[in-house]
Here is the input.
Amino acid sequence: CVAPDAEDASHRYNSADWLLEGSPASFARQLFTQAVPYARLCRARLLLLAGQPETLLGEADDTRASAEKQRYPLAVIYSHIHSAAAWNMLGQQDKARAELRKALDKALPDGLLMPFVENSRHILPVLRSLKRSRHHQGIQRILELTEIWNTHIQVAQGIPAVSDARPPLTAAERKLLRLAANGESFKMIAARQGITYGRVKNIFSDLYKRFSVHGRDELLRRLTEQGLTQSPGKVKAE
Here is the structure.
């Protein structure tokens, strides 16, 4: 094997000029550029965890444009998944499904499932709503892997397996959560259910602890993501 001389290499490998240049500045400049799409994805994930879907959606086009420019299809797939999760958090199910279909169209032909599994906590109800679509086989496999994934995470965290734990919500809790998701205040819920205001507050305080959240809005958002309740409405005036 005969290595080409520098002039020939430069002519034949124009896309790698920065490698041929070999200076610290060229390495830093190009490697930074290549890292930008993945840095944007990390930020998008943090925005999801911070409950800032509007900000994520405002940056989504730039994130995808950066990934497409660098020809990173995996980053494009993740970006569509993150957008689907953000729309789901905002209760915009049609838009969430549209973004998820784009991700599935790009990922399933190559058998790429883990991006969906990794983000399942944010997109599970959207995935389930597409089970009868043309993607049904891939979605079924994603759901199966998600169950395995969540089991292993629970074991790692020392949490009992789902089959050994009590149901996440009782029938009474579901009833109160449906009213809360409809925008009813704690006082309105108490009056409707014939229980005290303090009892309602205690039930929700227990739910906050159980789901590791810090308030009513975050609780309803978390349960919506997990498909356990409907998208929340605004709290009605007393």
User: Anything to note?
Assistant: The CA atoms of residues 117 and 150 lie 9 Å apart. Residues 24-49 form the longest helix (26 residues).
